[in-house]
Fold this protein.
Amino acid sequence: MERLPGFRDFFPEPLPKGEMWSADVREYIFDRWQTTARNYAFQVYDGPPLELLELYTAKSGEEIVGQLYNFTDKGDRGVSMRPEMTPTVARMIAARERHYKKPIKWYSIPQLFRYERQQKGRLREHFQFNADIFGENHPAVDAELIAMLTDILRSFELSADDFVVRISSRNAWQEFFRSQGGDEADAYEFYQAVDKIERTATEDSAKKFDSLGFTLEKVRNFIDSSEPTEELQEVLDNLKARGLGDFVKIDYNVIRGLAYYTGVVYEAFDRHGKFRAIAGGGRYDQLVNLVSGGKNDMPAAGFAMGDVVLVELLKERGLLPEYNPSLDVYVMVEDEALRESTLELVQQIRDFGLHAEYPLAATKPDKQFKRALELGARFTVRLTDEGTALLKNLESREETALEANTVAERLI
Ligand code: HAM
């Protein structure tokens, strides 16, 4: 039986031939995400992987709705696997924000599902680090999020030569759209065309903008101006004050494909433009209102970073940590008559919070020793009788006799 296309198995290291997704690497990525989020004083939250279909149909925009894994459940409800986290967190905030002091800073690492055309950097399932701030609409919030996005990538040893955060503004685009006499009803279609401009043939883009009453030339001129608006200048100044100015640039090619963005938007890319976007986000001040049916209003901004492009990039740069197995101690059973006392010893060692392994079934001593080496054990230990043990340091190969019930203390 094969796995579904676009879905992944995560194997423990060392990886079997032909497999590329490591469960150990995934742990490493999650660990860095969490560490930086806590440094920035974000609190963790989570939501359900299955939501009512309508949470997405009205709020996310056509592109994502076309990619939904949706079905009718046995209770006749239209439901969908979550393709993104933002509608869920907006729903949770709309219902419970009164319980929390503002600004609310939350992060989460959901697995998401999108029925996309499978290609490099895009699968049908991925893990995504999400960070969002609610209850404050100052550009300092956008800057705080962009700083955290930057620091996450720096925590993987990526530098300003490796990536850049391209910052833009829906407000700036909206002004341009209005100044050119754009029809409000076409605004989202226009934003979609801008979002795809770098991935679309010039001819096709020109036709699209023509049909909306614009010329590609005027759109391109606006992009090339790169003139920061007042709010974008504030974001830039804030990031410069942190010493992060080299990691960002104004780039109006970015507008974001999702429908709900309202202000500052941004995407992180590798410097050579070889990979798809590493992360993306922005301000979405009306989503909480929409999700709550007008009952609640709350400024919001956030971003998300997927694990797929990130791992591809780190792999290319040789920045993934080498896998080194490690174990505190391998407890050998040389004499099966001592197995019960050995189990007691294993238990004592594990109670001390140490990592211990032992043979589950009768095994030849040389095989046990080989296993200890494969597992990267620092020590082996074996009982010689019920009360005495021999502890061997596998680096110096020195062996010490000691009382069995002092082994755990000696290993700390
Ligand atoms: P997004 O741009 O759709 O934004 O996704 C964010 C990141 O998730 C992308 O830059 C990419 O790294 C990763 N990603 C998206 N789709 C896939 C896929 N099919 N396969 C692999 N990786 C993927 C959002 O999802 C917004 N909800 C982000 C946000 C949070 N905005 C405000 N708060």
Remarks:
- The CA atoms of residues 107 and 131 lie 4 Å apart.
- The chain has 15 helices and 17 strands.
- The chain has a mean pLDDT of 95.
- The chain has two domains: 23-317, 327-411.
